Amino acid sequence: METPAPSRQFRRLGILFVVSAPSGAGKSTLLNALRQTPDFVYSVSYTTRQPRPGEVNGEDYHFVSMEEFEQRLAGDEFLEHAQVHGNYYGTLRSAVIEQLHDGVDVLIDIDVQGAQQIRSDGNPAISDAVADIFIMPPSLEELRRRLNKRGTETSEQIETRLHNAATEMEAWHAYRYTIISGSVEEDLQKFRAIMRAERYLSHRMVLTP
Amino acid sequence: METPAPSRQFRRLGILFVVSAPSGAGKSTLLNALRQTPDFVYSVSYTTRQPRPGEVNGEDYHFVSMEEFEQRLAGDEFLEHAQVHGNYYGTLRSAVIEQLHDGVDVLIDIDVQGAQQIRSDGNPAISDAVADIFIMPPSLEELRRRLNKRGTETSEQIETRLHNAATEMEAWHAYRYTIISGSVEEDLQKFRAIMRAERYLSHRMVLTP
Question: So what CATH class is B12-202?
Answer without folding.
Answer: alpha beta
